[in-house]
Amino acid sequence: MKKNTRTHFMSSIMIVLFSALFLLIAGRFLYIQATGEVDDISLEKWAEEKRTASYTLDAKRGKIYGRNGMTLAYDRPAYRIQAIVRESFTTDPEDPKHVKNPEKTAEKLAPLLDAEKSYLLERLNQGIEQDRFQVEFGSAGKELSQQTKEKIEQLDLPGIRFKEQATRYYPNGNFAAHVIGYARKQDKALTGMTGIEQEMNKKLSGENGHISYERDQYGTKLLDPNEVVEEPEDGQDVHLTIDQKIQTLLEDVMAQVESEYSPERISAAVLDPKTGEVLAMSSRPSFNPNKLEDVDNWNNNVISTPFEPGSTMKMFTWAAAIEEGVYNGNEWFESGTYKVSDRVRRVSDHNGGEGWGSITFDEGFARSSNVAAAKLVWEKIGTEKYLNYLKAFDFDEKTGIDLPRERKGKLVYNYPRDKITTAFGQASTVTPIQQMKAATAIANDGKMMKPYVISKIVDPDTGNVTREKAPEVVSEPISKDTSDQVLDLLGSVVSSKHGTGKEYKLEDYSVAGKTGTAQIYENGSYLTGYGNYIYSFLGMAPKEDPKLMMYVSVKEPDIEVGESGSAPVAFIFKNVMQKSLHYLDIDPDKESSGQVKSIELPKLAGKSVSSIKQNLTEKGLSVSLIGSGDTIKAASAEQGDKLLEGDRIILLTSEPAMPDIIGWSMRDVLQLAGLMDLKVETMGNGYVTKQSIAKGTPLKENDYLGVELEPPGFIEEQQEESDEAAPENSNEEQQ
């Protein structure tokens, strides 16, 4: 009886527990059925999400164009190689879908991927051992070109397939690389890292869209999929002020100087002083944004590298004195050395303090006298007023140029020695673009212009201009009369018998400019030794009404003892300025037997090849004929365009075939590519030494053309001409 009572009691407890549990579970089900929620999550919504596929629709990144419409950056398809290594993926042994022979696959792929066979084989074997479905080959297997993909496909290797992805491509290699910058994948999206790519990243990127639809358990879209599509908004196109021809001239000449003199650094820029538009800008060392391995210099030195500029600063010192009304160019002073007090170290002229005896202040400017500059600030202008002029020229702030990572120099103006040495370009630091901006006031009747490189932004879908830049006058630090007087003084630097800038004379244009030889401050002291300077020139032409301004600096060129340190600077300036002025059809203001003629093109399309070719050749153009037809279908320039003697023009007829382009410049290659719609890839800079398409091969649209370019050495005639033009002791600060 006792046992039965205990059993009944325990049974009752179990019944109660199971009843409670049943009611709890049943209640939960009833609650879920009634509310359709679990833990505040809607089951209907959760089921919908589980059966809904959603994908991002990538926006196309906008293109970057030059002043002449040349494409400088655009998205192009690239490919990532994948190797399927799981054997079960093959259903028919006669038609294998996986990598059947890893060693053979690695051997065939190695030369096309520019990778070691052992590395590829190791990746394949690891995938097989780890029972992975597929493997990739790291950086060696990414961003493959269409040409490489096609070559691999021709090998017919089992298990090899490709995944398409967008990559940023720069068809002109290191052309204006520091201005254009580069973009790379970040968080699955192309992101601008430097240059215009970074500055205009938001405009270029656009807005991604997306697509979503409901699917079944096998991933198949339902008959009523509730599809939602939000179209992507493609990025906008950015047009630059960079001129194709002037930039190419600059790149080619800088490549020659880099090859010949192996300098530590070169910085150069060309702008229109009337508008502030930057027509060309380049730095050395440079880089190819398509190949970012072993980049030595990410900085755009023109805007990001402040340094003590040397005597180019003297033009602003003289401008301040003239504007202040305290300058008398015919007043005499004793050159050589100058000491303001016993507690301040003396200032010496650049010829070791020897000077040139008693000379006028005008002659002191032409000779680049440090003593004259120091006396003007200390005795005539006054140090505080001079500081006000430095600030009026905006040397204490950034220029505001539309490029990222601009840095400003620093006005070091605490002690008397700082104040007087700033007058001739020591102590205080500035960037090249700060100097150019300030110099626009001298070239532009006292109006100082804001420099810029972006001309407009265009919607690629509608062609509408969404934003357009216009010249902006920042301020007027000096008057027109002062600017005229300073231009005359700058002209004397180049043209007078005492001038330090005789090397910078052009054949048929007058030049106004100022030389600079800046000491380099490192580890607490100035460097010594021959060539351990930054040689520079800031010049403009024609002198009476400057249309172009150019700044060039070369740091520590490898020059021979006795060779002028300004020789590489003059080589760059003269070549680029002379040809650019003619290219822009600026009327020469000097008589010269060596004047380069400008040739206006007649109508070409539809004309006879023989007559046009003879006519253009007689006028001095280099004519390249593409095709075997008798009638011109198209040309690399149009009716009314003006070319210079020696320029190449390409005439296209029927049945075009690849010409021999060895010796062509990059600009010539780009013209050929534009005319034939070729996909061109340039490696190096200068002139073509190798071409991927053999001479005589039939050409068609979208053919790939790879070229290798190398800089030539200096032409012997140009070296001799430069040596003859260099006067004795012309280097203003030989020490």
Automatic annotation (TrEMBL):
Family label: Belongs to the transpeptidase family.
The protein's organism comes out as Lentibacillus juripiscarius
Q: Which domain of life is it from?
A: Bacteria
Instruction: State the taxonomy lineage.
Output: Bacteria, Bacillati, Bacillota, Bacilli, Bacillales
State the pathway, as annotated in the record: Cell wall biogenesis; peptidoglycan biosynthesis
What keywords are assigned to this protein?
A: Membrane
Every copy of the PASTA domain together lies at 653-711
* E.C. code: 3.4.16.4
The protein here is known as serine-type D-Ala-D-Ala carboxypeptidase
